[in-house]
Design goal:
4 strands; alpha+beta; single chain; 2 helices; 82 residues
């Protein structure tokens, strides 16, 4: 069986379960043999807050959201945004 190499978010709505106090984010698992599968990443409220902060920090490094949507792929220092 091929090992997973990385996971990427799927462009679908995430859901929040108030009773369980956790979010569910659709993701795609990528394998070393090129295969993929869909899964759900379960995150707590604390994890959501942490990753929201991290996402905002990364977006700031690459420019404002309108700049990202316009296709700008480098930071103000010229570093590529991954």
């Amino acid at each position: 069986m091929a090992q997973a190499t990385h996971i990427t978010p799927i462009k679908r709505d995430a859901a929040y379960d108030h009773r369980a106090r956790q979010g569910a984010v659709p993701v795609q698992v990528h394998y070393e043999d090129g295969g993929t599968s869909e899964a759900v990443l379960i995150v707590t409220a604390d994890q959501m807050a942490f990753y929201a902060h991290e996402a905002a920090r990364l977006m700031k490094q690459c420019g404002s959201p309108p700049d990202l949507l316009a296709g700008h792929t480098t930071t103000s220092e010229g570093t590529p945004c991954l």
